[in-house]
Amino acid sequence: MDTRPIGVFDSGLGGLTFVKEFERLLPREKIVYFGDTGRVPYGTKGRDTIIKYALQDIRFLKSFDVKAIVIACGTVSSVAFGEAAASADVPIISVVKPTAGAAARCTKTERIGVLGTSATIGSGAYKKAILELMPDAEIKSRACPLFVPLVENGYFRRDNQLARLAAHEYLDEFSGDVDTLIMGCTHYPLLRGVIQDILPGITLVDAGLETAKATVKMLEQNDLLSGKGGGTRYFVSDSTDDFARLASIFLEHPVADMVEKVEIEKY
Ligand code: DGL
Fold first, then answer.
1. Best exposed site among 6, 20, 43, 87 by fewest CB in 10 Å?
2. Cis ω on the peptide bond leading into residue 41 (within 30° of 0)?
């Protein structure tokens, strides 16, 4: 039994798609969450900047004596996993492998779509991970750079016209082409309703959910489960109010008293 928290980070709200599922699966685990809202988005930045941010995020989480780290960010997982793992000193998990594995299990046609940030799609990380499992798979990838700012500004409701317009622009080409579509950026499952309405017959694979399931397994295998306590502390690098408001809507419970601000550049 290990009652230390797990550390989870993302550029902003996206990693909450992991938190929501993980809290449901293992309510007795403590989480320290960092959302780098002062520097979001990561997915339009260059590799060096993404690595620098990831290492600062990990240094901050390590100050809580975390027992494991979850990179709840497709961009860091795709671009900087090696550097992140080398600096972690504790078990670390990325979103790419669990999500690619779930897509390979879901597809019947071996035609898989991948959505992600520009950095994620540019890295080819999901494609590589799928082809390792399914060498004959055909993979169609698309960067969706407007999705993260839409989510961070609260435009993620199913009937939001701006989100629907952006989603049509990115997704129409997948209709009738793939049977499985990876939401490879953890922000995208907040747009699940919008995406599913445009592609009703396609199975959506959620990077937050798949990573939550993989983290449960990883904690079990490393004998790191807590079994008592629980609760999540949230840290952000910009306004706590904006984050708390949107996080409370998505998580469906109030988080205002649990959000603190951190000067991430100090780490
Ligand atoms: N949610 C992150 C991801 O999975 C970061 C997106 C961004 O900041 O651009 O890629």
1. 87
2. yes
Q: 1 alpha carbon to ligand 1 midpoint, in Å?
A: 32
Alpha carbon dihedral 70, 76, 77, 81, in 10-degree steps, equals -90
Separation of alpha carbons 147 and 21, rounded Å: 21
Asked if residue 53 and residue 38 are part of one domain, the reply reads yes
Q: Which residues of the chain are under the pLDDT cut of 70?
A: none
Please tell me whether residues 201 and 222 are part of one structural domain. no
The H or E element containing residue 7 is strand 6-10
Question: Structurally, how many domains does the chain consist of?
Answer: 2
- Ligand 1 binding pocket, CB closer than 6 Å: 10-11, 14, 40-43, 73-75, 117, 120, 148, 185-187
CATH number for position 237: 3.40.50.1860
Cβ neighbours of 251 (radius 10 Å): 17
